[in-house]
Structures are given as structure tokens and as C-alpha cells.
Design brief:
This protein is α+β, with helices and mostly antiparallel strands. The protein has a single domain, classed as Aminoglycoside 3'-phosphotransferase, Chain: A, domain 2. The protein is 41% helix and 16% strand. It has a five-stranded antiparallel beta sheet with strand order 1-2-3-5-4, covered by helices on one side. A two-stranded antiparallel sheet has the order 6-7. The chain has a two-stranded antiparallel ribbon with strand order 8-11. Strand 2 and strand 3 form a beta hairpin. Helix 4 runs parallel beside helix 9, helix 7 packs across helix 9 and helix 9 packs antiparallel against helix 10. The radius of gyration is 19 Å and the shape is globular. The N and C termini lie far apart (44 Å).
């Protein structure tokens, strides 16, 4: 366990599948949420911190303020948890639409430097880290993926997401050879599958419902991003993977940023990404689900 220097009164709290998480009081008296992992890769928490800042920059949705970050931990402002109410569900839809249409500089790497609060202190960033480096890669759970830009979305989704994950799954025995082949065929067909071209959106990148935190006032906050510039349907597909979001959320989204024709048919295409991640990390039924989804689009 690694905590910020001077942290005290640490008590374990829920914090996801791969990290330990604690509520702590920092040396300066602020209450914080700290996530930590002994085998975290150098720069992993810095990349998450950069993503939180970048997603907050348009002012569309709240993200916890980064209080301290190091290779061994990430300390965030404490958000008193609650339940998303009806207004919060609508706010989530509107906020996602505004965040996505704030756009990104391209498909992949982003520049988070504009997202730094003026009163942020140097300790808010990993020692020796550079924000551009934090934005050049992303992690989905403990899996490192490249954010190196490509000229178009089909190429990025195939070459920076699905194909690298399929190759890792092959090497680890997490997919059957036929499943890997099906993912390869999807990648080869990608330009036919992704629908009308759109400008790159500012993506959370791992937006399952557990990464939408409700505060005590019923308002939504985004946590645990895997941020990059990509297609906005990725976030919406992920939000629907482990349970359907409120109809209010989708209706509010569509009012501000209507989805293009055929988006329903592409939901599974974008759910293939988290299914491959889960097959790699957890195996079991996720392997079969990923292979089934790949065959559907192959």
C-alpha cells in the first residue's frame, strides 16, 4: 500500500477490481479518496489524472479534483456518495453531449495542459512526469494501450484498440484461435462498420455505470477515465453494457447531440472493446461473449 506523505486515518473503501482504495486525511487536513496498487505501471496514475483534468476542461460534467499523484497512488477530492436522481440522470446525458462535442484534437492522443487549474500545485502531478507523456498512452484497468494518433477513426479503433487486445488475448490464451481470427476480420472490415465519419469526441473511454459516481445531492461525477479522442458512440455503448442507462439520460443526450443513423447496430461493435478487456482480465464467460460479438461483425 502506498499513500501520500503524511496521510492519516486511512480506512478501506470500495475502489474497483484491481486497486486498493482508502478514505484518508491528507497532511493539510483535506479529506481524500486514494487508490493505490503495488504493481501499478510508472505513469499509470498520472495518465488517469491527466484524463480527469481533460474531461473536466469543457465544464460539462464534474470530475474529482486531483490532489496528489505519484507512480504508486492517486489522491482525489472526496465526493460524498449518493444516488443519481432524475435531474442527475438528465444532467448526465446533457453533460456527455457537451463533453463529446467539445471535441478532441484528433483520434487518440490529447493535450491536457489546458485543463490544469491555476491554483494546482506542483505536487498535483507525478514527479518528473510530462502531461504530453500522460496523454500518449491509456490504461483500461491494468492493460496499457497506445493513444498514438491515426488519420481516421476506423484505423484508430482497429489498430490502437481491437487488434492489440486480440494479440494479447492470443498470447495469454484468453481467446480461442477462431475468436482471434474473428477480431482480425472485424478490423479488416472496420471502414465498412463504423458509420458516417464524425469529428473526434472527447471520450471518457471506460464509461460503464460504475464509473459514474453520484454525490449526496444526486449529481453525476465521472471517475476512472481511460481518456482519448475517439468516436462518441464508444462511451454510450459502454454505458449500456452492464445495464441500461436511464431513458432520461439518452433522451437528454439526443436533444443536444443527436446520434447518426444506424447507431443502434453499432452498439455491439463498440462493446467488443470492453468485452476483450474483460476476457483478458477475468476470462470465464467474457471469453465467449467477446468471441460471439466478434463473429457478429466479422
Amino acid at each position: 500500500m502506498s499513500l501520500p506523505p503524511g496521510a492519516r486515518e486511512a480506512r478501506p473503501v470500495a475502489g474497483g477490481d484491481i486497486n486498493e482504495a482508502f478514505a484518508v486525511v491528507l497532511r493539510d487536513g483535506r479529506q481524500a479518496f486514494v487508490k493505490t496498487r503495488a504493481d501499478a505501471a510508472p505513469g499509470e496514475f498520472a495518465a488517469e489524472a491527466a484524463g480527469l483534468r481533460w474531461l473536466a476542461e469543457p465544464g460539462a460534467l464534474r470530475t474529482p479534483r486531483v490532489l496528489d499523484v505519484d507512480d504508486g497512488y492517486l489522491a482525489l477530492e472526496w465526493i460524498e456518495p449518493g444516488t443519481l436522481d432524475a435531474d442527475g440522470e438528465q444532467e448526465l446525458g446533457r453533460g456527455l453531449a457537451m463533453m463529446h462535442t467539445a471535441h478532441a484534437p484528433g483520434f487518440g492522443r490529447f493535450d491536457p495542459t489546458c485543463a490544469h487549474d491555476e491554483d494546482e500545485v506542483a505536487e498535483d502531478r507525478a514527479p518528473g512526469s510530462r502531461d504530453g507523456d500522460d496523454a500518449g498512452v491509456t490504461w483500461l484497468a491494468s492493460l496499457r494501450l497506445s493513444n498514438e494518433p491515426t488519420a481516421d477513426w476506423p484505423t484508430f479503433y482497429a489498430e490502437r484498440r481491437l487488434r492489440p487486445l486480440a494479440l494479447q488475448a492470443r498470447d495469454r490464451g484468453a481467446l480461442q484461435p477462431a475468436g482471434v481470427e474473428a477480431v482480425e476480420r472485424v478490423c479488416e472490415r472496420m471502414s465498412q462498420l463504423t458509420g458516417p465519419p464524425e469529428a473526434p469526441a472527447r471520450l471518457h473511454g471506460d464509461l460503464w455505470q460504475g464509473n459514474v459516481l453520484a454525490d449526496a445531492k444526486g449529481r453525476p461525477w465521472l471517475i476512472d477515465p481511460s481518456a482519448y479522442g475517439g468516436h462518441r458512440e464508444v462511451d454510450l455503448a459502454m454505458l449500456a453494457l452492464f445495464g441500461s442507462p436511464s431513458p432520461r439520460t439518452l433522451a437528454s443526450y439526443q436533444e443536444l447531440a443527436p446520434l447518426t443513423d444506424g447507431w443502434h447496430e453499432r452498439v455491439g461493435l463498440y462493446q467488443l472493446l470492453p468485452l476483450l478487456v474483460h476476457a483478458l482480465l477475468f476470462g470465464g464467460s467474457y471469453r465467449a461473449a467477446a468471441e460471439r460479438m466478434a463473429r457478429r461483425y466479422a
